[in-house]
Amino acid sequence: MALNFDAINLFDFVVKKGNGVKGLVDSGISEVPELYIQPVHERFNKTNINAAQVVQLPLIDLSGLDGPEHDQVEKALVKAAETFGFFYVMNHCMPIQLLKELKDEAHKFFNQPAEKKSVYLRGVSPSPLVNYGTSFVPEKEKSLKWKDYFSMYYTSDDDALKYWPDHCR
């Protein structure tokens, strides 16, 4: 049976208690709560796309990182990160099995009870380098984003071992 939420209880359940969108869905809701419905003027409207505005993300071949093209590849990465914030990579040499394991570990994290995930909520996390949440600034947003996130910033092996969840190390 689905839980019944008013706006305040919903915000508390999702944001403050760390249940997130996954917890909301797992509670059995049958429709998207009003708090998640974006104002019409802020919604993506694919009929208003101008072909001239469509951006082609850069594709960066990482195979040159270990060779004479190292500096060119490095500059391309920096430019793509600064210009677009996103880019495609090829020849990254990451084994498919490792990528599968990474995805599996992410699922393990998000499938944990809220009590375990909420340890990493922004503001109470043992480190500003490790954060779990739903919207980035939920207290200031007109509508919440339909997502949960977990971010871990790598600064050193020592910090990773000290602050990252066990299964993420």
Any descriptors?
169 residues, mainly alpha, two-stranded parallel sheet, two-stranded antiparallel sheet, 4 strands, 34% helix
Question: Explain this structure to me?
Answer:
This protein has 169 residues and is mainly α. The protein has a domain at 54-168. The protein is built from six helices and four strands; from the N terminus they run H-H-E-H-E-H-H-E-E-H. It has helices spanning 7-16, 20-26, 70-83, 96-110, 114-117, 157-163; strands spanning 59-61, 88-90, 130-133, 149-152. The chain has a two-stranded parallel ribbon with strand order 1-2. The protein has a two-stranded antiparallel sheet with strand order 3-4. Strand 1 (59-61), helix 3 (70-83) and strand 2 (88-90) form a beta-alpha-beta unit. It is globular, with a radius of gyration of 20 Å. The mean pLDDT is 89.
Structural topology:
Blueprint: H1 7-16, H2 20-26, E1 59-61, H3 70-83, E2 88-90, H4 96-110, H5 114-117, E3 130-133, E4 149-152, H6 157-163
Parallel strand pairs: 1-2
Antiparallel strand pairs: 3-4
Q: Tell me, briefly, the overall form.
A: globular
Calculate the mean pLDDT score and round it: 89
Instruction: Please give the largest β-sheet.
Output: 2 strands, parallel
| Number of DSSP strand runs | 4
Regions with pLDDT < 50 over 5+ consecutive residues?
none
Instruction: Return Rg in Å.
Output: 20 Å
Helix fraction by DSSP (H/I, runs of at least 4): 25-40%
The number of helices is 6
> Assembly type of the shown chains?
single chain
Strand content: 5-15%
Structural class: mainly alpha
The SSE order reads: HHEHEHHEEH
Distance between the termini: 37 Å
Spatial order of strands in the largest sheet: 1-2
